[in-house]
Amino acid sequence: MANVAGRDKLNPLKDGERSAEDLEKEHFYEVVENAPEFQQLEKAKVGFILPATIFFILYYFALPVLVGLFPKEMDTRILGNVSIAYLFALSQFFMAWILAFMYLSKASKVFDPLVVKIVEQARKLRAQRGV
Amino acid sequence: MYLVENILASVPAQLASQSKEPNITALVFFSVFVAITLGITFWASKQTKTTADFYAAGRKIKGWQNGIAVAGDYMSAASFLGIAGIIGTQGYDGFMYSVGWLVAYLTVLLIVAEPLRNLGKFTMADVLAFRMKQKPVRAAAAVSTLTVSTFYMIAQMVGAGSLINLLLKLDYTLAVIIVGAIMLVYVVFGGMVATTWVQIVKALLLIAGTILLTILVLAQFNFNIGAFFDEATQVRKTKLVSEAAAGATAIKINATAVIPENKQLYLGDKTGNTETVAVKSSTLAADKKSLDVTLATPLKNSYKNSELAGTTNDFMSPGGRYNGTNAVPAEKKGKGWGALDLISLGVALIFGTAGLPHILVRFYTVPDALEARKSVVWAMVIIGGFYIMTTFLGFGAATLVGVPNIGTADATGKFVTNSNMAAVVLADKVGGEILYAFIASVAFATILAVVAGLTIAASSAFAHDVWLNIVKNGKESEQEQVLVARITAFIVGALAILLAVLLPGANAAALVALAFAVAASSNFPVILLTLFWKRFNTAGAVGGLLGGLVVSVGLILLSYNGPLGFDAPFQLENPGIVSVPLGFLCAFGFTFLSKETYAEARYAEMHFRAETGVGAEQMEGAAEPKGIPVGATAPTPPEA
Q1: Nearest to B635 by CA among A25, A12, A127
Q2: A-contacting residues in B 567-596 (Cβ below 8 Å)
């Protein structure tokens, strides 16, 4: 419940003003996010998700763009009566599945173990600070 | 609305789907489904005590179960009836819906699902409210959630209307009220637990039915997929321009491209005359609006002007819907719109899913982000397999049933074409009455389950965001909250029934695509910027939500789907390509109107939690929360 409880109540100060507790907390999260493991997690995630997203968006939009602009050429039949347009559309399914499983494996091998470490460190830091 | 083709065509009297009597077998199947799901609801109602039970099934749903439920939410009347119908009546272009809707899950998987599960409690607005001002963002998010859900619901109810008419020959209003009432029982008494399990049961039935139909269709071609596609290339829809008498070898059809020699031309009319003739030659008329065709053999029957639905090849070619001439009459639309229409649809489809409230709330039903991730992948496997099969259903209906025969007889026995009926009429054709009754009742169940999911999402947006957090300032007992949620669900459901009663006929897939456009323009930019842009603030979120909503709904009203019909100024069928960038622009623009230090200061905490799941909402009864103890990191509750 806590994380949806109103920030308006939580923060009765005017915008721009912060309580000592707020500042303490902000500082805490800045520290944990500057830790090498968190930076490593960020780098690994961006390194996978950004290129993957750009790739799937380009691969996907190639379909409506090509089919829309070059319907005749895309209608070339290459497997009996099956057209390039159909096969390209079909390939999108496999592209999506392959990318999804790559993400699944990357997440469980790289992201999740890092998260465990990060949480452990943050817990220790919290105990030290007694926040 | 001009999304359904109104071609009068022949009635093959032997099909049960085209009898004017109510179908008793279907009624029996449907009653069994209702009995089982009411049983589930009774069981679920005993477990629904807290708000977490009602909105999020106690967060106890396993990843694979939620995957099936997400797939079930997605395999709605639009996917099953609508896509099969577009492929069945317009060919290849319908498959573009299938592709876009699956690829959309990559957006959900890579960007939205896990942070959403880590940050929120019951609704999409929870994520925004984490670092923005509560009241304005919750109010704006509730407005957009209710709008998207309403569009989606209209589409489902249109499908329901078609089916009721087909199956039970009941009075439309009465039938919609019965369907709505059953759905309300699921939601009001069983909450998310019942809704999820009804969705799972239905998804499994739907997959089984689709696999069976696909096998039966391919069996007609001796499992030779090549032969199946050969047959699919033999059909394409067009109309005769002038009368054609028996014995004639020259006809004039409404087509803008020359048909090569030896291609087949299928002709049919509403009196039951059908024949297939080979083309000898064809030449385009001087005004390029009609085609003079010389036939290899004389016509057997006489056909009247414009009552005819002729079909030429071929359904494998792109452009059956989006060539600037089919969805909109040629004279109203420039030739170049085909590509833009397709791209615009694509934008709405792949970014819309990540903003659909009834899909997003599903991720709160699992214990943690890991299970949310797994459920997306499960859903992708199921949905992808299902969507590939839509081509077999659609092309199967076009070839085996025949494009002009996709429709149903009304209570007076008069045949009416209806593209939403492709899958059910096909079941009748390849599997006989029992399969037809089974598929029709599964489609019915689909609509019931999806409308239930939509009702939960809409009622949580109202009861949790508006009532509890805005009106009551977050202070209300669990018991009262559940009561309010139930009352809201009842009101939302009753409104859905009312809307359904007032509905015109339209293709369910095309209508749902409009809901996706609204979600992609309004919700998606704001979720994305909240998660990844530190400078983003309350003004930007509210401006983005409402701006995207106004732009997308406005463009839909200004398009030919709106009240102006074909004289409308906005020519695209789906506004995505214009409204999504404008939605982003609103979100960016309004952000710079103010500077909100607090929203920026809390970004670090939100980001840390989104990435690690620290402080995320726990499964009920979980002994030891994962990560940092909740009490240590979570912000102090307002009461403290």
Answers
A1: A25
A2: 596
Interface mutation target, options A81, A101, A110, A116, chain B, most CBs of B under 10 Å: A81
The pLDDT of A15-36, averaged and rounded, is 76
- Angle CA B252–B257–B258, to nearest 5: 70
pLDDT digits over B472-523, tens only?
887 778 788 888 888 888 888 888 778 777 765 555 666 677 788 899 999 9
Q: What pLDDT, on a 0 to 100 scale, did the predictor assign at position B628?
A: 44
How far is Cα B578 from Cα B511, in angstroms, rounded to an integer?
18
**3-class SS of residue B181:** helix
Contacts of B174 (CB under 8 A, 6+ apart): none
Q: Spell out the SS3 assignment of B505-559.
A: CCCHHHHHHHHHHHHHHHHHHHHHHHHHCCCCCHHHHHHHHHHHHHHHHHHHHHC
Q: Is B612 on the interface with A (CB under 8 A)?
A: yes
Query: Would you mind telling me the total number of residues written for chain B in this entry?
Result: 640
Please tell me if residue A20 touches chain B, with a CB cutoff of 8 Å: no
Q: What is the pLDDT of residue A111?
A: 93
CA B193 to chain centre: 22
To which residue do tokens 């009551």 refer? B472
Measured from the Cβ of residue B375, the count of other Cβ atoms closer than 10 Å reads 28
> What tokens appear for B466 in the block?
């508006």
CA distance B576 to chain A (A): 13
User: Of A118-127, B19-28, B121-130, B497-506, which range is least confident?
Assistant: B497-506
Tell me the chain B residues in contact with residue A6 when contact means C-beta distances shorter than 8 Å. Answer: 129, 134, 469, 473-474, 638
Side chain identity, residue B616: A
Strand, helix or coil for residue B295: strand
Distance CA B62, CA B118 (A): 16
ipTM of the complex: 0.86
Segment B431-449 shows an average pLDDT of 85
A94-118: average pLDDT? 94
Model pLDDT, residue B335: 41
Cβ neighbours, 10 Å, residue B325: 22
B111: which chain A residues are within 8 Å (Cβ-Cβ)?
A: 49, 53
A-contacting residues in B 363-392 (Cβ below 8 Å): 370, 373-374, 376-377, 380-381, 384, 387-388, 391
Is A71 in contact with B384 (Cβ distance < 8 A)? no
Name the residue with tokens 């395999």. B75
Amino acid at B272: G
Q: Of B235, B218, B214, B236, which Cα lies nearest the Cα of B227?
A: B218
Q: Which amino acid appears at position B394 of this protein?
A: G
A55 Cα to chain B: minimum distance (Å)? 11
B288: exposed, middle or buried (Cβ count in 10 Å: 0-12, 13-18, 19+): exposed
Asked if the C-beta of B625 comes within 8 angstroms of chain A's C-beta atoms, the answer is: no
In this structure, which amino acid lies at residue B366? V
What is the distance between the alpha carbons of residues B604 and A122, in angstroms, rounded to a whole number? 14
Using a CB-CB cut-off of 8 Å, the residues of chain A touching B389 are none
**Three-point CA angle B616, B617, B622, nearest 5°:** 110
Q: Which of B201, B108, B127, B163 is nearest to B516 (CA)?
A: B108
Residues, chain A: 131
> What's the pLDDT score for residue B374?
92
Q: Are B37 and B201 within 8 A, CB to CB?
A: yes
| pLDDT > 70 in chain B, percent | 78
Mean pLDDT (whole number) for A75-87: 86
* CA distance between the termini of chain B: 54
B616 with B119: CB under 8 angstroms? Answer: yes
Q: Looking at A1-10, B70-79, B169-178, B333-342, which range is the least confident one?
A: A1-10
A24–chain B nearest CA distance, Å: 11
C-alpha distance from residue A52 to each of A39, A90, A91, B31, B520 (Å):
20, 19, 16, 46, 20
